[in-house]
Amino acid sequence: MSASLHNLRVSIVQGETRWHDPAGNRDYYGRLMAPLHGTTDLVVLPETFTSGFSNDAIGNAEAMDGPTVAWLREQAARLDAAVTGSVQLRTPEGVFNRMLFATPDGGLAHYDKRHLFSFAKEHERYAAGEQRVVVAWEGWRILLQVCYDLRFPVFSRNRHDATQAGQADYDLALYVANWPSARAYPWKTLLRARAIENLCYVVGVNRVGTDGNGLHYSGDSAVIDFLGHPLSEATDEEVTSTMLLQAAPLLEHRARFPALLDADAFDLAR
After folding, report:
1. Does 23 fall in a domain?
2. Looking at the domain assignment, is residue 111 inside a domain?
């Protein structure tokens, strides 16, 4: 992030994902996003937004040349904004819970969920990602993360980037999730913790409603500033909202309180 960086408009789309209904979910989330044209820079959808969080959905996992990837690219072009969210995608290496990041110029990046939720036996059906992914958009450096990754702060640790003078690895962390209401307090708490410790903005987007396994989701999607203060917090209803992330206060805070320069150096291994 440079000192001349512009502010970033980020939209959260918190919806009631239909169970195992990719076409229906594409139509549903498309309608929720449609009014955002020309009003935002980045649209964030929940985790597994075409199916809900389900091990059984693996049988219908699409390929990268399937309809959902094409749809996401179309939405980015239509909205003139980046669009991101995760889906189950099949590759020669296995089926990944893959977070896609599509841009209106046709670009497409992705991050494969690293921390699989063994409590729900996700690790028995899905392949785990290996690489941390930071994308660049509108001058911002954005870390892509999926749900359970939120509980593992080492993997998301922001560091001073020696390759870019005075800059951190990233400025904004995105967490897309299917996080049940039974564990809502950790969700809210950890989003704040990740923002505070990494001196960055954090956006967490969850779903609402009840899924096919009977799990209830209370939403609680939020935009958190670098001090851990919520700029926006949703409740347990369908909502689409946009917040302006201001660059100058973030840069000023990092200059005034340069904690990243005092952090421990480390390498990730698995």
Report:
1. yes
2. yes
Instruction: Tokens for 152, please give them.
Output: 């593992």
Alpha-carbon distances, residue 190 vs 2, 27, 150, 262 (angstroms)? 28, 32, 7, 22
Strand ranges inside 68-195, DSSP E: 82-91, 94-102, 108-112, 134-137, 140-146, 160-161, 167-168, 172-176
Decide if 3 is inside a domain.
Answer: no
Structural domain total, the chain? 1
Per-residue confidence (pLDDT) for residue 229, from 0 to 100: 98
Q: Which one, of 186, 270, 197, 259, lies nearest residue 228 by Cα?
A: 197
pTM, 2 dp: 0.96
190: containing domain? 8-260
> Using CA atoms, how far apart are residues 197 and 211, in angstroms rounded to an integer?
33
Average pLDDT over residues 137-149: 97
**What does the pLDDT look like over 73-128, one tens digit per residue?**
999 999 999 999 999 999 999 999 999 999 999 999 999 999 999 998 888 889 99
Arithmetic mean of pLDDT over the chain: 94
- pLDDT single digits (tens) 198-225: 999 999 999 999 999 999 999 999 999 9
Residue pair 94/134 in contact (Cβ under 8 Å)? The answer is no
* Active-site residue list: 47, 113, 147
Return left, alpha or beta for 32; rule: phi > 0 is left, psi -120 to 50 is alpha, else beta.
alpha
CATH of residue 158: 3.60.110.10
> Do residues 14 and 146 lie in contact, with contact meaning Cβ atoms separated by under 8 Å?
no
User: Alpha-carbon torsion 36, 233, 178, 111, what sign?
Assistant: positive
What does the DSSP assignment read for 185-199?
HHHHHHHHHHHHHHT
How far is residue 181's CA from residue 210's CA, in Å, rounded to a whole number? 10
268 part of a folded domain: no
